[in-house]
Amino acid sequence: MWPLKDNYKHMKIGDVLILSLALALVVIGVHQSMTVGVGGSYPIFMFAVALLFWFQLRRNKILRTDDEPSAKQKKKKKR
Fold first, then answer.
1. Domain region containing 49
2. What is the pTM of this model?
3. Has residue 4 been placed in a domain?
4. Of 13, 29, 34, 58, which is least surrounded by CB within 10 A?
């Protein structure tokens, strides 16, 4: 499980937009798969998955940059 240290306060407007767009594309993809079929909705689902990967990449990058200063401080304290 991912670290649960106040992740909600790190969400910027770009992250909210990416996540909202991915959710909207999943809903549109489900609708298209019911009306047209899975073949017609496949590109929509793939774009939604790509947006979810991008969101996760941005989130992990923010979490890594938050952990780096604490590691540097620990090294300075040991010396």
1. 37-65
2. 0.71
3. no
4. 13
